[in-house]
Structures are given as structure tokens and as C-alpha cells.
Amino acid sequence: MFTAVLILLIIALLFFVVLQISKTSDLIDAIKKENNKESHSKSALYFSLIGFGVLIYTIISWITESKKFLPVSASEEGVAIDNLMNFILVLTGIVFILTHILLFYFVYKYHYRKDRKADFYPHNSKLEIIWTTVPAIVMIGIVLFSLSSWSKIFSKQDEGTLAIEVTGKQFAWVVRYPGKDGKLGVRDFTLVNSDNELGVNWNNKNSHDDMLVDEIVLPVNKPVIVHIGALDVIHSFYLPEFRVMMDAVPGVPTKMAFKPTITTEEMRKKLENPDFNYVLACNQLCGSGHYNMQKRVRVVTEDEYKQWLREQKSYYRTVVKPALDDKAAQDTAVVTTNSGNFENTLTTGFSLVGAITNGVENKLIDFLNSNQAVSKDLWFSFDRLLFATGKSTLLPSSQEQLKNIAEILKAYPNVEIKLGGYTDNVGKPEDNLKLSTDRAKSVLNELSKLGVDVKRLSSDGYGQEHSVASNDTDAGRQQNRRIDIRVTKK
Ligand SMILES: [Cu+2]
User: Fold this and answer.
1) What is the pLDDT at residue 38?
2) Distance, CA 481 to ligand 1 centroid (Å)?
3) I want to staple 459 with a disulfide (CB 3.0 to 4.6 A). Which of 9, 81, 309, 419 is the partner?
């Protein structure tokens, strides 16, 4: 990149040097009152030489830089797209080079000379017709070729034997594979919550064997259809090596079918790069973590694919069902043993709602009732606060815990607290700092709305500093996105 800029700069400078020299030589000639014809022919020659120079530079750099272009297409559809692109490029390239050779040659050939005069040639209908019809015919040819490629790609839309679902969100892709039934469970936006971001209807039998996977694995030479969606803003499903790109739009399902033809292993050999991987990237600037929005894609043989598929676990059976059973067990257990729940009735007569053992309410009350002194390093994390992604807006489900905290503060009227906001390390540090500050502030506002004197509250944002877990995993990042509470006076 740097050398390319340097070379362009040198060419530009050379151009000005030549321009200046030709001007001076013109001047000198004029002063000498020599035959003017010579000097004009000289500057015309310089100009046409520069033109050829640039043209040759363009062609050479096109050849030398071609290693940086995309590798051969790894899908059947991509080959059709490449053929179309090459057809257009060769056609326009030939016209471009020919016209420019003529342009610079004519600069030289028809430069001013005292002994000749330009012809007056105002109009030629035949010429006009020719240079309108010829490009029109060529254009129609290109359009027909494009249409045939388009229909080849989009007529296959329902043929895919393997149908997977990819949903974009800030800033990750959620990938869902159907289980043995080959059908994905239905989704319903009214079911969306923090435990079920896709809003999958778990009562729908098709959803029970669906899998949420960490990477997209595709069998080679088998058509696949990807159902594409988004949860928040517009993303774009982009697989450059397969020449696939389709916008992921919230509320508007899109789809794209293609047939991978080159496995990851084969491509590694082709590119002589043992570390090569296909990557699904987002091709829409969707926010501060956009650069991070990628997912590995692996194209494997049929056997490897089946092997991988066997290793994947149904999300419903391994995560959802146990959690539901657990909850059912807990709900019945509450009546008899109270295990897992933190129950407390404050001096004001308010009974805490939904608090859990070791939750923030538990820790805060224990601390207030203890002899432990106020400390700068003693922070308790809220455990049931939810914000809209990337925003400081609290979701309605946060109200229960906020109300508990507000009531605790009312029951301990001398206590003053500070709220600290924190984020994970995704995105720009300055954005994270602002977001954490705004979020801590919005919790403060909420507590004051719930009747706590604002003089007893303060808030600050710390951005991605002071992480409590590793930022390398989803779970860790989730723990780091938090609001903490610290007692400043008791
Ligand atoms: Cu995106």
C-alpha cells in the first residue's frame, strides 16, 4: 500500500517536472525566436509519453498485485459470477486500453504546427449512429449474460438439501443447524428474552433437535441454503471466497443458496497457506464492534461433516430443558426448603422479590448488617439488570431488582452508594467508557425515580477496565458487562 502511494507520488512529481521542463524549453525557444514548430512537437511528445507511462504502470501493477485478489471461487455460483466479471472486465479493458493509446497518440500526432490548419468537421450522422448502436448492442449482451447468471443463482433458492439459519446481532453471528428432521424450530418474536434471543418456540417439536454451533461446517459439493436474519441493525452475510453476499435485515428474512466446491484443506494447498480458513464476515458497518463480527467456515468431506454433526448437541436438550426442569424443581422446592432464594422482609415492611442467595440484595444487606467498614474496593454486582444492546436503556425485566435495591436504601436511610458501570473489551475503549458511564447514570436515575434521594447516589463509568472475567469467551464478556454497587457511607 505504502509503496503504491509512493510510486503514484513519484509519477505525479515526474509529471510536474516534465511539464516545467517543457514550459521552459518553450520559453527558451521563444526567446531564441527559433522555429516554433519544434518546441510544440516536443511538449506534445512529453505529454503523450506520460500518458503511455501511466497506462503501462496500470497494466504492470494489475499483473504484479493480482496475488492480492480473491482466490479462485470456492462455490459453483461463484464461478458464474467470476465469468461474468471477467467478461465485463476484459471487454471494458480492451476498449479502455485502445481508446487511451489512441488518445495519447493523437495528442502527439495532431499537435499544433504553424504550417497546418485544423479541419472544420461539425457532423456525421453515420458515425453518430455507429457509436450509439455498437455500445447499445454490447450493453444488451452484458445484461443478458448477467440475467442468466442471476437466474442460475436464484432459481436454486429452494433446492438446498441442507438448510441452516444464520442471524446477525451486534456483534456476532448466531448459527442454527436443524437436527435429524432437517427442519428448524419455528421462531416467534414475542418469545424473545435474554434466555432466548432468537425467540425459538420450544413447544414446537422441530426445535428440540436444533443445534447452535460455534462454526459453520459445510459438506463439499452439497447445496446449502442459508436463511439470514438480524436481531438489531442491518448486517450483511458475506463469504468472499464463495462470492456470496446477502444483507441480514431485522424483520425481513432473506436467503441465499450456494454449493461449496473446494474444501478448506484443498484451498490451503491451493494457496500454499496451511493457516487459511474461510470466514463469514459482516459487510455492513453495523457499530463499534463490526470488525470483530466473524465466524469460521469449514468446508469438509461428506464423512467429516457427518462426524462433526454427530458431535453437536441439541441446544434444547442440553441447555433449555435442564434449565426448565431446574426451574420447575426450584419452584416446588421453595415451598419446602427455600433453597436458592434469598428472602428478606425489610424494616419498612417491604419483602424482596426474586432475590437469590448470594445475589446483590443478599450481599448488600449482609454488608449493611455487619461491622465491616466501608471500603473502596468492595463492590457488589447487580445480577438481574438488562440493557438494550449497545445502549443505556434498561429493559423492563430489570425493574424487580432495581425496586429491591431502592427499598433496601429506604430501609437504611443513612447509607450512601456509588454505582460503577463496566463493559467488555469489544469495540473502542472510548465508546465503552461512554456506554458504561451512561448505563451507571441510567441506573442512578431509575433508583431516584423509585424514591431514593439523589444526594445519596453517585455514579461513574469505568469502560472496559477492572474486568472480573476473561474477555475471551462469551460467558466471560457477559460477566464483564455489569453495573456494580459500592457503599460509600453507612
Ligand atoms: Cu454486522
Assistant:
1) 54
2) 20
3) 419
pLDDT at residue 1, as a whole number: 64
Instruction: Please tell me the predicted confidence (pLDDT) of residue 336.
Output: 41
What residue ranges define each of the domains in the chain, with the CATH number in brackets? 2-113+126-155 (no CATH), 157-318 (2.60.40.420), 340-489 (3.30.1330.60)
Query: How far, in Å, is the centroid of ligand 1 from the Cα of 231?
Result: 10
Grid cell of 366 as nine digits: 449482609
Span from the CA of 168 to the centroid of ligand 1 (angstroms): 6
Rounded CA separation 22/28 (Å): 10
**Integer angstrom CA distances of residue 448 from 241, 385, 403, 415:** 54, 16, 11, 14
Closest CA to 219 of 306, 93, 295: 306
Distance 288 CA to ligand 1 centre (A): 10
| Residue ranges, the chain, pLDDT below 50 | 333-339
How far, in Å, is the centroid of ligand 1 from the Cα of 283? Answer: 7
82 CA to centre of ligand 1 in angstroms: 25
Distance (Å) from CA 228 to ligand 1 centroid: 12
Note the pLDDT of residue 188: 85
Predicted model pTM: 0.56
